[in-house]
Amino acid sequence: MKYRRLGDSELDVSEICLGSWLTYGGAVERRQAESCIDAAFDAGINFIDTANVYSGGRAEEFLGEMLQSRSRDSYVLATKVFGEMPDGDRGLSRAQILKQIDGSLSRLRTDHVDLYQCHSYDRDVPLEETLAALTDVVRAGKARAIGVSNWNGKQIRAAVALARKNGFAKIVSSQPEYSLLHRNPERGVFPASRENGISQIVWSPLAQGVLTGKYAPGAGYGGGTRAEARGDTFMSRYLSDEVLTRVQRLRSIADSLGLTTGQLALAWALREPNLASVIVGASRPEQVVENAGASGVDLDATALAAIDEAMAA
Fold first, then answer.
1. Please, what's the largest Cα pairwise distance for the chain?
2. Sign of the CA dihedral 272, 276, 278, 282?
3. Cα(166)–Cα(292) distance, integer angstroms
4. Which element (helix H / strand E) includes 200?
5. Cβ neighbours of residue 189 under 8 Å, at least 6 residues apart?
6. N or C, where is the chain less crowded by C-beta within 10 Å?
């Protein structure tokens, strides 16, 4: 496992991050979830990402239980604030940030998180109020660093400028969706981040599993797959025969490099120097091991050109 520095922080994170959206404390059976956590540590993964809203707080509760037996300095723990909780609380107001960090710490059974992230941009709260509250969280020792998720380049630049002006805690990370099928952050988020010492922690680098190549065009979805459960919502944009045909072209490239198609897609994302880590979900320990195998893979110019050609419409 390779590690990268997270922006201008003191945190070194594994190139592969274990995420907990739709999995732990939720859809994945507990014993399987426990096996995934163990497999992650065995593979050298030290970075775990969650959020207060995942499974209504149960993801944090599960991780809090699972991490009790491990040394606190053996992992980097990230969580988020913004989304609506079961009691209706939501947003990035000062009151919410101070309330939600305490709730997360209680569920996670720790006195601090390493990275506290705004899960989305809150247009209903002044940015200065949000940044001031996050700064107080850091100064109280409840978070070592702060980051943002799903913010655009303009929002990131505005936050950095305001932080410099007022002496607020510095944003060290950005968490956008990014993959071979979703490259939008290259236009705005990446440049704004590079200019300001901010690293990317990208979510859905496998496009909800589509980039593993397991969905063939015209074949339908297998029983129990994420596509079967969610194909008419978030994943629908990736499940057309045209997109799936392009993804199938990656298989021969992966084979020639001794990789799985999923490992190839993760290695492609990690080619970007501004990335610190890619977040992967896993419902089985074998998936954790396979994903970890993408760390340290160096794709040369020939491989990258072949990928570009395969993905061309």
1. 56
2. positive
3. 40
4. strand 199-202
5. 151, 152, 153, 156, 174, 176, 200
6. C
Q: Give 66-77 pLDDT, tens digit per residue.
A: 999 999 999 999
**What is the bridge-based pairing of β-strands 171-175 and 199-202?**
parallel
Question: Which one of 54, 75, 121, 178 is the catalytic residue?
Answer: 54
Express each pLDDT in 133-148 by its tens digit.
999 999 999 999 999 9
Active site (annotated) includes residue 3? no
pLDDT digit string, tens, across residues 178-213: 999 999 999 999 999 999 999 999 999 999 999 999
Tokens of 206: 């496998």
* CATH number of the structural domain 3-209+272-297: 3.20.20.100
DSSP states of 213-239: T-S-TTS---TT-HHHHHTTTTTGGG-
Separation between Cα atoms, residue 91 and residue 108, nearest integer Å: 20
Q: Do 148 and 117 touch, CB atoms closer than 8 A?
A: yes
Report pTM.
0.94
